Amino acid sequence: MVSRAKIKELMNESACSHSKDKKPGEGCDKPKPGLAAGGCAFDGAQISLFPYADAVHLVHGPQTCLGASWETRETKTSYTGRDHTQMGFTTGINTNDVIFGGDKRLDASIDYIMENYRPEAIFVYSTCVTALVGDDIDMTCKKASEKHAVPIVPVHAAGFVGSKNLGSRLAGEAVLEHLIGTKEPEFTTPYDI
């Protein structure tokens, strides 16, 4: 789970003209009457990471979380290979998983994806239900990543943690922590840093 300190840090809207007038940790996610409220943090995380089309995006939660985010699959990508974002993957947890934990179901879902689709990576999104239950997606992803020798990235952006914007930031944090700097590119250009 993401620490409160990290969430407070990410709530600092440096581009917001009135952010300096707010108390520390207070964000800009209060909707105004008549305006679209946007989506939850889970929605923002998916929208931000869907351009990684060579990766499978696995929703660890009830099937309805996958269905609620289906329209975000139109996110464009420049990837020319098999676009995994056009398929929906979920662990589809049920009442028993809520009571006894869904870690085994998550592990089995990752094994199934690797056996049948062989993606370059898997993003595993926590949802409100799995975050509240306390499923340890960090440990499950770490063990599965070692087992399958591909990055399996936990994305801690359960819907209740905040706005779509915060979800985008949490997705970026997951990429920075688990992908950036872990592998050298096959080729570089004069413009690469």
UniProtKB/TrEMBL annotation:
Signal sequence bounds: none
Nitrogenase/oxidoreductase component domain span: 40-184
Disordered: region residues: 1-30
Organism: Sulfuricurvum kujiense
InterPro entries: Nase/OxRdtase_comp1, NifE-like
Annotated PANTHER family: NITROGENASE IRON-MOLYBDENUM COFACTOR BIOSYNTHESIS PROTEIN NIFE (PTHR42956:SF1)
Name this protein carries in UniProt: Nitrogenase molybdenum-cofactor biosynthesis protein NifE
SUPFAM superfamilies, alphabetized: Helical backbone' metal receptor
Biased composition (Basic and acidic residues): 1-11, 18-30
Single GO term (MF): oxidoreductase activity
